[in-house]
């Protein structure tokens, strides 16, 4: 089996980007180690602090953020970084060619129940000149690499450098990432959806109607039964979609007028959309292709609908229709 290093060489990924990817992968091994020790290492539970988005930070949110920051500072190829857990962009190395955006611990509410969590990352080219927040405001199409590491029963790395999606499994004894799927591919059709149903009454009409039609199963307009899964960690839900197809959505909702979307464009939606498109799937907000969005702020949030291409198209066909005559499903 190919190691990650051998794989990067075989794909002719340039030396500096390979080095950066290996740094991210090595740090994820250390994160995996911390996550696995759980209560034994005293890393579970929340802190008294909130991040810039008003969310209470878990101890592991801060620990993993610091681990990635320290590793990227030592790497030398990184001009700057932006993290879900940092208020502002962080200047790293003056001569660095890359910008790295990351969610150090996705699904952090799962950590205290020993359920799936992961790290998501995105690599962008660093524009010349002074580093500011504007340096990061590039569309997802500019990403040079993206991936996630899933800390599950085994630790897995899904990676794209724009040449398909490869999946690596961390060997527990040798501590090497080994290539276990050279070409992840999302089946175009599916009978599985993932959405937080508890928000149903807050969704827009198109999503209300789409999900209602899925729930009608064989007697509804879709004429087939659908199953539902919800891991409550995007990284776990997207991994399932990449592994066996499906549609995952965190749609627009009006639960909190100040926060109509949950997932973050730069740290979650863009890297996952890059992986999903590279595996043959689609990723949209309902109205716009995620990778085409020009960001206006680093911490910006977006609606996300991604996965099996035909099912995403089916969901999108409900958007942009006139719902004024539709029954209110509240
Ligand atoms: O189940 P909920 O609370 O609606 O939210 C789950 C979503 O929130 C997230 O956990 C947000 O990520 P963080 O844990 O990085 O804040 C997503 O991974 C997940 O899809
Ligand atoms: Mg997250
Ligand atoms: Mg997080």
From TrEMBL:
Per the entry, the cofactor note is: Binds 2 magnesium ions per subunit.
Q: Show the catalytic activity.
A: beta-D-fructose 1,6-bisphosphate + H2O = beta-D-fructose 6-phosphate + phosphate
What does the UniProt entry say about where the protein is found?
Cytoplasm
Q: Where does substrate bind?
A: 106-109, 196, 262
Record-annotated Fructose-1-6-bisphosphatase class I N-terminal domain positions: 9-181
Q: Which residues bind Mg(2+) 1?
A: 84, 103, 105
Q: Which InterPro entries is this protein grouped with? A: FBPase_C_dom, FBPase_class-1, FBPase_N, FBPtase
List the Pfam families hit by this protein, alphabetically: FBPase (PF00316), FBPase_C (PF18913)
HAMAP family assigned = FBPase_class1
Q: By what name is this protein known? A: Fructose-1,6-bisphosphatase class 1
């Amino acid at each position: 089996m190919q190691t990650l290093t051998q794989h990067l060489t075989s794909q002719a990924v340039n030396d500096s980007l390979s080095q950066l990817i290996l740094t991210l992968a090595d740090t994820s091994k250390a994160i995996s180690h911390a996550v696995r020790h759980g209560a034994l290492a005293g890393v579970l539970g929340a802190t008294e602090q909130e991040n810039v988005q008003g969310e209470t930070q878990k101890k592991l949110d801060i620990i993993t953020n610091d681990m990635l920051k320290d590793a990227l500072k030592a790497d030398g190829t990184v001009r700057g970084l932006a993290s879900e857990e940092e208020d502002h962009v962080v200047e790293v190395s003056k001569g660095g060619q890359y910008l790295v955006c990351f969610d150090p611990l996705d699904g952090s509410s799962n950590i205290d129940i020993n359920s799936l969590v992961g790290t998501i990352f995105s690599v962008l080219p660093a524009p010349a000149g002074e580093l500011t927040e504007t340096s990061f405001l590039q569309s997802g199409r500019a990403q040079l690499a993206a991936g996630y590491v899933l800390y599950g029963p085994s630790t897995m790395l899904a990676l794209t450098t724009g040449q398909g999606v490869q999946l690596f499994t961390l060997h527990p004894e040798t501590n090497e990432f080994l290539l276990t799927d050279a070409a992840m591919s999302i089946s175009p059709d599916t009978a599985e959806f993932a959405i937080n149903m508890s928000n149903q009454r807050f969704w827009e009409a198109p999503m209300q109607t789409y999900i209602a039609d899925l729930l009608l199963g064989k007697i509804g307009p879709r004429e087939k039964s659908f199953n539902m899964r919800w891991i409550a960690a995007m990284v776990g839900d997207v991994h399932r979609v990449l592994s066996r197809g499906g549609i995952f959505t965190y749609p627009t909702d009006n639960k909190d007028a100040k926060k109509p979307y949950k997932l973050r464009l730069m740290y979650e939606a863009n890297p996952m959309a890059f992986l999903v498109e590279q595996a043959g799937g689609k990723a949209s907000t309902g109205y716009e292709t995620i990778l085409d969005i020009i960001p206006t702020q680093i911490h910006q949030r977006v609606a996300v609908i991604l996965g099996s291409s035909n099912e995403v198209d089916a969901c999108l066909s409900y958007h942009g229709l006139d719902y004024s005559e539709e029954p209110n499903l509240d």
